[in-house]
Amino acid sequence: MAVLADTDSRWKWGLGLARRLNPAAAVTGYQFAGSDIPSQRQLAEAGISADSVSVVSAGELLTALAAKPADVLVVSLPGGGVQAILHLLAAAQLEQRPLVLTGYVGVVYERITEGLLLRAGADLIAANSPADLDEFRTTFTGLGLGTESLTLTRLPFLRANGPRTNNRYTVTFAGQPGVPNTRWHRRYLVERLAEHARRYPERDVLIKLRNLPGEQATHTEQYPYDELVRALGPDRPKNLKLFGGDMGKVLNRTDLLVTVSSTAAVEAIHRGINTAALTDFGVRESLGNTYFIGSGCLASFDDLDAGAEPRADVTWARRHGLGSEVDPLPQRVAEVLASGPLPPLQPYYTLSNGKAFLPGLLANYGVGTDGQPLGFLVGNAPSGLRKAVRRSARNMYRHGSQVVAPVLRRLASL
Question: Which of 84, 231, 234, 351 could share a disulfide with 367, CB 3.0–4.6 Å?
């Protein structure tokens, strides 16, 4: 087993899937170059030690797979990254090509066709729910593609409840890095949580931090909740608390999970925990809470302050892959591996149907349109130089996303 990932949440998904396929198999981890490797804590929570992870470019991945062949490669990257790896492996002359398995890290609620076609061509594409599987099949059929690669699974981070770790009624807010994305809206959330804590002094109100200070995450967080909570000063109620670390542990003490659209909500619903997807900022695709239409979980802070405890509709939950332990993916992988030599990989996009956008997409991941690793910063450059260039690129990206982009958005709103 091998897993190729780039960020903390994608490591969690990829490793979770690999462990489920074969809990006893050794897993080799490849960190795709261009993103900072997650912290030791983040990797440990995902299920792998930092010593077992190698940072690789596209060319270095081929070298690693040739030296240490894998039966299965779980590609846990964004859609563009998956497409690049498909082109890379399709052109490679590996003596033993791994089965390529990919899918979606969380729930799918927007850009479904775009993301699915970037993954098309993999040996297996995992759909996290019956609803996703039906939608994927409809898309492939409409484009004249076969659906044999589509297979049902469930999100690998869905776990059963552990032992109760607290006797007080606990409301947990699961934050997200980019939803909502303005300081005013994020301050609104903190103030409403503080108000709820004052209204119910017998309850603990926890704010679950996405990552600990200094750690890298899949998405940049512009206005961290810990800073906004500290800004409350002496007005902060004592039962309003911050919590970092594993979401599974905090859910073991949670009676009501509150979020805008975090995937923590689906884990809470899977466990049978009361769950509220907030409507205070609207029910909008850009927020991701449209996913919960029909679930019975949409609610406002006013509803929660009045005592509401939303519980997900059972039929909706089953349709979205929640509340069930059934997972046909391991058997499907075993069948494909046992069926004989793997057929050549055929990525959906080629220079025939995607000539205007494919070259740039592949180049972002160090792959040429011929499927070969690009010559720059691959193998022939000193490792120190590669690290320096990658570090500079990451710093420029962070400056742009954290400093320049907010200024431009403010100017655009004038």
Answer: 84
3 state SS for the chain: CEEEECCHHHHHHHHHHHHHHCCCCCCEEEEECCCCCCCHHHHHHHCCCHHHEEEECHHHHHHHHHHCCCCEEEEECCHHHHHHHHHHHHHCCCCCCCEEEEECCCCCCCCHHHHHHHHCCCCEEEECCHHHHHHHHHHHHHCCCCCCCEEECCCCCCCCCCCCCCCCCEEEEECCCCCCCCHHHHHHHHHHHHHHHHHCCCCEEEEECCCCCCCCCCCCCCCCHHHHHHCCHHHCCCCEEEECCCHHHHHCCCCEEEECCCCHHHHHHHHCCEEEEECCCCCCCCCCHHHHCCCCCEECHHHHHCCCCCCCCHHHHHHCCCCCCCCCHHHHHHHHHHCCCCCCCCCCCCCCCCCCCHHHHHHCCCECCCCCECCCCCCCCCHHHHHHHHHHHHHHHHHHHHHHHHHHHHHHHC
> pLDDT tens, 109-126?
788 999 999 999 999 999
**CATH classification of the domain holding 344:** 3.40.50
pLDDT in tens, 289-310: 999 999 999 999 999 999 999 9
Per-residue model confidence (pLDDT) at position 360: 95
- The pLDDT assigned to 381 comes to 42
pLDDT value, residue 357: 94
Asked if the model's pLDDT at residue 380 lies above 70, the reply is no
Give yes or no: residues 243 and 114 share one domain: no
Q: What percent of the chain has pLDDT over 70?
A: 88
The total of structural domains in the chain comes to 2
Q: Is residue 250 part of a domain?
A: yes
Q: pTM to 2 decimals?
A: 0.83
pLDDT given for residue 157 in this prediction = 84
* Same domain assignment for residues 149 and 262: no
Provide the residue range defining the domain that includes 67: 2-158+327-380
Domain final residue pick, 319, 343, 367: 319
> Are 9 and 150 in a shared domain?
yes
CATH number, domain at 297?
Answer: 3.40.50.2000
